[in-house]
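[step 3/7] fold_predict: job queued, chain A
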Amino acid sequence: MSLFKARDWWSATLGEKEEFDQGCLCVADVDNSGSGQDKIIVGSYMGYLRIFNPHPVKPGDGAQPEDLLLEVQLREPILQVEVGKFVSGTEGLHLAVLHCRKLCVYAVSGTLGNVEHGNQYQIKLMYEHNLQRTACNMTYGPFGGVKGRDLICIQSMDGMLMLFEQESYAFGRFLPGFLLPGPLAYSARTDSFITVSSSQQVESYKYQVLACATDGDERQETEQQKLSSGKRVAVEWVLNIGEQALDICIVSFNHTVSSVFVLGERNFFCLKDNGQIRFMKKLDYSPSCFIPYCSVKEGTINTLIGNHSKMLNVYQDVTLKWATQLPHIPVSVKVANLQDLKGVIVTLSDNGHLQCSYLGTDPSLFQAPKVDSREINYEEFEAEMKELQKIIKEATKTQDVLPKSEKHRDLIVTAEVSPDLDAESQAIDSEVKAETVPSVTVKITIQSRVTAQKPNLAVCVQAPLAVTCDQFVLDDLEPDSSETVVLSVFLKGNFSPSELEGDCVVSYNTPTDLNPEGILKVAQCNFKLPLRLICLPAQPSKAANHKLTIDTNKPPISFLTLFPDFVDPSQDDQANVLGFQFLTGSKTTLLASKTSQRYRIQSDQLEDLWLIAKELTLRLEEHFKKQKCKDFACTFSGSIPLQEYFELIDRHFELRLNAEKFQELLSERAVQFRAIERRLLTRFKDKTPAPLQHLDTLLEGTFREVIALADAAEENQASMFQAFTKLKSATRLVIMLISLWQKLSTDQVAILEATFLPLAEDTQEL
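[step 4/7] structure written:
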């Protein structure tokens, strides 16, 4: 991911065959030197405690003996090391070391050396607590808002939080619903403990709630105790993150805001201290550790995230700012101030590779070794070049396995729509209640330049439009031959379509030398249907519920010119106003302003405006294209009819809910019907017939209910499809108005259509 490697400032290898994990690394001024320089404290599972103070002469130096301030074996595995104000009576920093069954607090001090070996450091045990339960991890902080000292909270492997007020044990509480321990952190601002449970959810527990709850030292409670006990441990807030967490960090760079950072297995979350997500980042790698630290930009937080690909990524909130390569997989990462160098990245691997590094782009200097110069044999090179070119030529041959892409297509399909409606209508089984349902002839021609085997033609129009025949199986086509198919399109359903377009698709096989069966190919084209197919000229209507005004930058054109198929040339009054009567019964009126460059479309139904508005804009564009006028543009400045659009959405949604309800009721009645059938069958099979007890009446009643429900579901399905078509028309209208309002390009309109019109058909599954 990155060209840059982490620059090695100082590194050390700790012990042999020792193991380390997340809690084994800590950086702090543990000896209270007051210099502001951090020391690096490392504990291992083998029980070794080491404290380093790196002083490299030049960047990249390894560890020198004087860099190791202290190394001591504590006999028991070290699970976690932390530095804080753990001793009463002093605000100095002390070192807390967590073992499996013991918590030890040490004072680290140094004495000035009189000889060249330098200062001497030692640790002194201040106090220790023997634990009744096996520890997992710990956190510390000023629990309950105490000043000048830190308290310690240890989480056991069986889900008990054990709290210690420095030298004394305070209390223990079991977490509710516990299964496995997760990371634990303390938020000083809200005085609460935050962990991630086995239910894959972040949980927050107030310190005051834990302190006031019933004592949890005994896990087994009787039923009587449960009923008579005091307050139980209650969670403050819960957030389901859907994955296990690796670590939790709580940062507060000012007193007003604190953030809870949770590193999951695949995501990185930042939460507010009330449990709401501030932001999250999906990671495309497997993380191993992380640390948030303050950012130079106000209001943002930087985070270092290490992963199992030996990478260290730097994020500013969710933006990746830098990526750097490490020599090992980090299990823990910290940011420290070492030897007047602020912001040193300290990483530790599971096998004990400790490295202090910085981010930079200084290149690794590499010089290519000199090669012995020898005379070039040009004839030998030329022969080798010819051989290689021959191999390349053989490899790039298609050998007719794949079809060659040619400029001229093998098969071309074209569709020609008749300019006039059919003299005798070809409409079959139309549900439209008009006197005559017109049809229009579409002539489809297939021209083939090659041999086309098994050509199949499919013609598709959007319902409620229909074709007289939609599938054609044709004979094989010889090279340079053609086939013509004629069909008619008409309005079948008793409602208006959302578009007046159709598609033709031809699938065919072209044989090759290696594949006589042929390679399947597809050719397609689309065609536009006339407006006369679904509406007739009518008297204009003055009153209407829905009105749209479209502005243009050219004087209005007479409707005699724009709509010659809808107006009577002898009637001059139709030059500025025109009525359209849809076959389904609704009416739309189109008006052109005599004084301004505007057109108004009005109708009682919102969805009926769409086809007329689209036809108007298309015919205006075609008219000015013929006039060779390039600067013509339509605009829309009115308010988009969103309220009416939302009503159509609600209606469609209501019908979808009805469909689900009918499906459930049908399922229930069918189960009831089968149960009654089984009972009757058992009675009829019985050798000694028992009375039917009105089971036959119940069967007949249930059968009638099933039939009635099926009829109602079918009727609802038809209504839902009508609502779906109306919704599509209204959606297309809204998209067109937005595009005219914002002057969107064709590509931008295509994005809007892909977003708002993803469905070609309406089913319960989609």
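[step 5/7] annotate
The chain is about 20% helix and 35% strand.
Residues 219-229 have pLDDT under 50 and may be disordered.
exit 0
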